[in-house]
Amino acid sequence: MEMIMTKQKKPDAKKPATPQKAPARPTAKPGSKLGRLEAMLRRPDGATVEQLRKALGWQAHSVRGAMSGALKKKQGLSVASEKREDGTRVYRIAA
Q1: Cα(35)–Cα(29) distance, rounded to whole angstroms?
Q2: Could you count the other beta carbons within 10 Å of the beta carbon of residue 32?
Q3: In this structure, what DSSP letter does residue 58 have?
Q4: Total structural domains within the chain
């Protein structure tokens, strides 16, 4: 039995490394509830949890969770809060 030798394949030339782009952060659709939440927080005077709760039909813990999870963690936005003299807390997206 005769062995036939074939040429060995040359390793493919490596392509030059291209710089990796940072993954795009998801943004909320303007008409969605998250979009409305973001729009209310972008207002100059911000919004209270009660205002957000009434506008979105959510419970207070859901509003705070959406600000923390969807806006802060997923979209990378900075949500600031301040306490007014009357004791209410106002949230807004910091510039």
Answers
A1: 5
A2: 10
A3: -
A4: 1
Measured distance CA(74)–CA(72) in Å, rounded: 6
In order along its 95 residues, the chain shows pLDDT tens digits of 677 777 777 766 666 666 666 555 667 788 899 999 999 999 999 999 999 999 999 999 999 999 999 999 999 999 999 999 999 999 999 87
Give the CATH number of the domain where residue 88 resides.
Answer: 1.10.10.10
Range of the domain at 45: 33-93
Is residue 53 a part of any domain in this protein?
A: yes
- pTM attached to this predicted model: 0.69
12 lies in some domain: no
Does residue 56 contact residue 37 with C-beta atoms inside 8 Å?
Answer: yes
Helices (H), the chain: 33-42, 49-56, 60-66
Q: Quick check: is 16 in a domain?
A: no
The residue ranges of DSSP E strands in 1-95, in sequence order, are 47-48, 79-83, 89-93
